[in-house]
Design goal:
Helix content is 44%, strand content 19%. By secondary structure, the protein is of the alpha/beta class. The longest helix has 17 residues. Bound molecules: adenosine-5'-diphosphate.
């Protein structure tokens, strides 16, 4: 069975992520979307909230599973029985970080391949931090995230202002 892990912060999931998940789910028998819990980062949505949003958005994918993990991605991939770590690439700026990420993974665990899917041009500008910034100032994020995510974001910021 071909198993892949797609790790990320997903704070929150947006259309760029969703496109990578759709395409990877066709390439592999099983895709594990893995929410990274990094104690050094302060996400807007806690791990449970990010998982719940992913579950709602991805409910129609039969071979996509959602989990959280802490620690090295390659160790987690091995634990899942995955041969592949999938990542998305937007721009040159992503490339530098991803290049280091892929080479480090290979050094740590030669049995795991890190594979890149190029963003679709219409999603290349989307990032979770960009989405949060636009939502914070009340802008329209309907082309960036599914409506359920947009609702949760607006709710978060409305609650914060109360
Ligand atoms: P973000 O950078 O949006 O905060 P994450 O840290 O959750 O996202 O990223 C998880 C993975 O998804 C990374 O490999 C990242 O490069 C990829 N990714 C993020 N946004 C996009 C996009 N718009 N198109 C394609 N891949 C993306």
């Amino acid at each position: 069975m071909r198993i892949a892990v797609y790790p990320g912060s997903f704070d929150p999931i947006h259309y760029g992520h969703l496109d990578i998940i759709e395409r990877a789910s066709v390439l592999y028998d099983k895709l594990v979307v893995a929410v990274a819990t990094n104690p050094k980062k302060k996400p807007l949505f806690d791990t449970q909230e990010r998982i719940e949003l992913l579950k709602m958005v991805l409910k129609d994918f039969d071979n996509v599973y959602i989990e959280s993990f802490e620690g090295l991605t390659v160790n987690y991939a091995l634990k899942q029985g995955a041969q592949v770590v999938v990542r998305g690439l937007r721009a040159i700026t992503d490339f530098e970080n991803e290049f280091v990420f892929a080479l480090t993974n290979k050094k740590l665990e030669p049995r795991v391949e890190t594979i890149y899917l190029m963003t679709r041009s219409e999603y290349s500008f989307i990032s979770s931090s960009g989405v949060k910034e636009v939502a914070y100032y009340g802008g329209n994020i309907s082309d960036m995230v599914p409506s359920i995510v947009a609702d949760k974001l607006h709710q978060k910021y409305d609650d914060a202002l109360k």
